[in-house]
Design brief:
heterodimer; A: about 220 residues; mainly alpha; 9 helices; about 80% helix; elongated; B: about 210 residues; alpha/beta; Rossmann fold; three-stranded antiparallel β-sheet; about 30% helix; AAA+_ATPase (chain B)
Chain lengths: ~220, ~210
């Protein structure tokens, strides 16, 4: 399992691996919004929690189809399916690799982007905390969507349609936690609910994704 | 004792039956070559034996953890070097060290080269070297010699022979002569599902159709 994780991380950081793509996309979204809505600080501060969360979500979506599509194309997925590693484990490892290369950089860079959008300082810990708890669910749900559409030509678009609705609960609670933080309130309740969603997703989705992969490999 | 035992096997591809009623046993030290025209279902049969898809009918007795499968695609990552590719599969399957596989497939000069820079034949040799690092006794190979030159085919035949001598077994689909006279050949032609059903058979002549 460690071998698979190391391979995926190595592939992501090599040429053409797409490392940093999501982060750059997130940066561009956060820079475009002030151009679109105008530079008034109070307007930006009000919409910042939502923009930051939607931006993180879209940045995450950008690289999802790579989770399985590349391995399917070059035959690695067939070989992994016949390997001693259980399919559920392979799915979980690949989702983890996706999170480390996409979700984790977003979490670490989010405070800087928060400043770009005039997010109040009081909300910064809530932003980092909610992204840290929420992005693993985004990667795992994305792995499920990628497993459903692996092998389809132009499957990336279909995958977005399947995955984005599943992201809604995480988005609602994540943005709510940041909004409460920005208003000087306690955001623990939405945070706890989001953590619950993340745990449920991490527990159930490897099995769902592995089942989808097995069907698609037939 | 047979490593693979297949009884009355029928496989389907896209909901259509390809071959049916296939029986064979594969014991340690044996090689079995599947032959038959394109599209008869050799790949489907091999994928079924490898456990990648369910059998439509019949039974396959084999330990799925004994089978190393190799298809048309080699499962290589272009961004990784030859050694990194092999080491990855070795770690996943927990097989022997990669040195012997590298030497057996004559890849010693290429170990540090990215797999994307290899020619088609070299990639194929790397894909076959992967079989050696899985350490699994039963090789299930789908057209293993595609894009290999004559020298490499001989190299591959030697690797198969060494594998059989160590108590391994090999089930292969191939169209060319491998230089493995000891291998048994199973022609899938008679097992073709369409040919076995009289209604589905195309009339041989005009008279038969309309006479």
């Amino acid at each position: 399992m460690i071998a698979l994780l190391m391979r995926d991380l190595r592939l992501a950081t090599r040429a053409g691996g797409g490392f940093g793509l999501g982060l750059s996309f997130f940066l561009i979204v956060c820079t475009l919004v002030p151009f679109g809505v105008g530079p008034q600080g109070d307007t930006l501060a009000r919409i910042a929690p939502g923009i930051l969360w939607v931006g993180a979500l879209l940045a995450c979506l950008l690289s999802l189809d790579r989770i399985f599509a590349l391995d399917w194309e070059d035959g690695s997925l067939d070989l992994l399916a016949t390997a001693p590693l259980p399919m559920e484990g392979a799915v979980a490892v690949k989702a983890a690799a996706h999170w480390i290369t996409t979700g984790l950089p977003l979490v670490l860079a989010a405070p800087v982007f928060g400043v770009l959008l005039h997010l109040p300082a009081a909300a910064q810990p809530w932003l980092v905390g909610s992204l840290l708890l929420g992005t693993p669910a985004l990667s795992m749900l994305g792995a499920f969507g990628a497993a459903l559409t692996v092998g389809l030509r132009r499957g990336g678009l279909l995958m977005s349609l399947l995955v984005l609705p599943l992201y809604i609960p995480t988005l609602i609670f994540g943005a709510e936690a940041v909004r409460r933080g920005a208003a000087g309130l306690d955001g623990t309740t939405p945070m706890v609910l989001m953590a619950g969603i993340t745990l449920a997703v991490l527990a159930a989705m490897p099995f769902a994704a592995a089942a989808a992969l097995r069907v698609n490999l037939r | 004792m047979a490593l693979i035992s297949v009884r009355g096997l029928a496989v389907s591809r896209g909901g259509r039956r390809a071959v049916e009623g296939v029986d064979f046993d594969l014991a340690a030290g044996e090689a079995l070559i599947l032959r038959g025209p394109n599209g008869i279902g050799k790949t489907t049969l091999l994928r079924t034996v490898a456990g990648l898809q369910p059998a439509t009918e019949g039974s396959i007795q084999a330990d799925p953890d004994a089978i190393a499968y190799a298809a048309h695609a080699d499962g290589l990552k272009g961004a990784l070097s030859v050694a990194e590719n092999l080491r990855f599969w070795r770690e996943v399957f927990g097989g022997p060290a990669i040195d012997r596989a590298v030497a057996a497939m004559n890849l010693s000069d290429l170990v540090s080269r990215p797999a994307a820079m290899l020619s088609a034949g070299q990639k194929r040799r790397l894909g076959l070297a992967r079989l050696l690092v899985t350490g699994r006794p039963v090789w299930v190979l789908d057209e293993p010699t595609v894009s290999l030159d004559a020298g490499s085919v001989a190299l591959f035949a030697d690797a198969v022979r060494a594998h059989l001598a160590q108590g391994g077994a090999a089930l292969m689909a191939t169209h060319i002569e491998l230089g493995l006279p000891e291998a048994r050949v199973l022609d899938l032609g008679p097992f073709c599902a369409d040919a076995r059903r009289p209604a589905a058979r195309a009339p041989a002549s005009f008279d038969e159709a309309f006479g």
